[in-house]
Amino acid sequence: MKMKKGLIFASILMLLMSSVAGCSNAKNESAPSEVTMEQDEDGRLIEGNVYLEGLPIVKDKYSFNIFMPGDNKPDEVEAYKKIEEATNVDVKWDMQSWAAAGEKKNLMFSSGDYADAIAGWALSESDVMKYGPKGVLIPLEDLIDKYTVNIKRMFEEVPEARKAVTTPDGHIYTIPLVQKQANTKSVLHINKQWLDTLGLSMPTTTDELYNVLKAFKNGDPNGNGKKDEIPLTFELNGPNNNQYGLFGFFGRIDSPNHLVMDDGKVVYTAAQPEWKEAVKWFNKLWEEGLLDLEVFTHDTAQWQAKGRQNPPIYGVTSDWDGVEALGEENFKQYEMLLPVTGPNVEQAEWPQPDPDVFKAQFAITSAAEQPAAILRWLDQLFPAITEDGLNETLYGKEGEGWEKTPEGKFKALPKPEGPTTYDKLPGFPNYWPFDLSEKTEGVYMGPDAITGENYKLYTLAEAYEPYLTKNPFPPIWLTPEQQMEISTIQTDIQKATDEKFARWVTGEDDIDAGWDSFQKDLEKMGLSRLLEIYQEAVDTYYSL
Predict the structure, then answer these.
(1) Domain ranges of the chain
(2) Backbone angles phi, psi at 314, to 5 degrees
(3) Would the N or C end of the chain have less CB density within 10 A of its end CB?
């Protein structure tokens, strides 16, 4: 998963807002080591070249290189120069363009000429499962326990993070991004000005929403004398603005691979009656012109361009914050719409955000001569320098993109004119541990920043919390063998499902007439085996 600058609001990689003191304890002193632990002349314990606490991290200057996707080199930023001076660690940044990073990474693994560390969105979970057991990526659990304060504390305070990065062989090969997500990654937005113009109330059921959509289509609510209104739209299979939550009106959400959890069991949505009812509802909207007739053909740019027309033509849409789909000016007409309830459904369901733990964010390879030094550098990177070092390394200099409030929080500022320090940063979130969750008031994230007010009102979407699925899919690991077995099965099944979805919604095929035969086709393609493999992975995750 690649995330560009500006996409994330108040986020966490780990809990790194601590002081640099106090790392040694009895466990550290008694931990087995191939190098003798001694007391240096400054009184600190040192093992080889690596101090167990305090700054600098190493006695003699140590250099290591990091392979990482990104556009700029952090060592061009003043904050990173301070980090090098304080830690006595010199980082050689091997920054690769997003377009080239995947190929360069594969060449690195095939040649055996590994970087000392790999960071950012470079590693896939498949890479970890392949190169961890082979010894290319080294196990980190013992190093974490012995040399870190903040990473270890993060695992203690966020135990699901340690659980998520522990692979089936019992090792931890990566340090995760622990990102405190908003309650939901998208919400529904409805044109409140249109509702007021037409004298309509906010809908709460699918029947009421249907009537509102009909009024939007026929009532010329944008007042331009044309029937150009698009009552309901979304970006098909989009990252934050898709159709998956709409299925939850009927009691069960959908997902990109159509796999969801149901009381600990993996189920395939397109084999469930709730999915069928949702598709029939979509078909009804399509037949009456209430669903965007370009929903299966428009791309992201086209979808956004339509949403930003003046006057607005979208009635209801799903989006991260509303601004992406509608633009800042049009967005002023919209308010949040809570999930509506379908027939025989006690309460609608809405997708939870992606897991708070992104597992493969930082790894150390077997090429590293001093892995303990690398991990200590990572552990104390930001608080080791300055309380504000975190913001400086993520958002630039104070006063450019952020400022500190009297209460000690960090507050977003409008982007200043001209180039800024932020423009030189490699792109967040590419790196390592920090915690902004309790210290921000709408963090500035570049030219497409969302204000603190909109962040609280729309991105957090606290009103959606009662609707969030109670059965989120856990962050499982699939072994190389499992991945190989499901690769063809899953591709064929998902392709067939997506094709049927389009044909049934548009009325090219009749879902009632073709439902039973489609279920038989899914079984022939290996659905039962697919579910069995995923269930094995889920059970393994919960057993750790």
Answers:
(1) 37-180+358-382, 187-351+476-543
(2) -90, 135
(3) N
Is 187-351+476-543 assigned to CATH 3.90.170.10? no
Q: What is the pTM of this model?
A: 0.80
Residues in the chain: 544
Q: Distances in Å between the alpha carbon of 404 and those of 424, 444, 476? A: 21, 12, 39
Please tell me the distance from the alpha carbon of residue 269 to that of residue 351, in angstroms, as a whole number: 13
37-180+358-382 CATH fold? D-Maltodextrin-Binding Protein; domain 2 (3.40.190)
Per-residue pLDDT of the chain (544 residues; tens, 9 = 90+): 443 333 333 333 333 333 333 333 333 333 344 568 899 999 999 999 999 998 999 999 999 999 998 877 777 777 778 788 889 999 999 999 989 999 999 999 999 999 999 998 899 999 999 999 999 999 999 999 999 988 888 888 788 889 999 999 999 999 987 765 556 778 899 999 999 999 999 999 999 999 999 999 999 999 999 999 999 999 999 988 899 999 999 999 999 999 999 999 999 999 999 999 999 999 999 999 999 999 999 999 999 999 999 999 999 999 877 888 999 899 999 999 999 999 999 999 999 876 667 889 899 999 999 999 999 998 876 443 334 445 565 556 677 666 777 766 666 666 666 666 555 555 444 444 443 333 333 333 333 333 434 444 444 557 888 999 998 999 999 999 999 999 999 999 999 999 999 999 999 999 999 999 999 999 999 999 999 999 999 999 999 8
Phi, psi of 249 (to 5 degrees): -55, -25
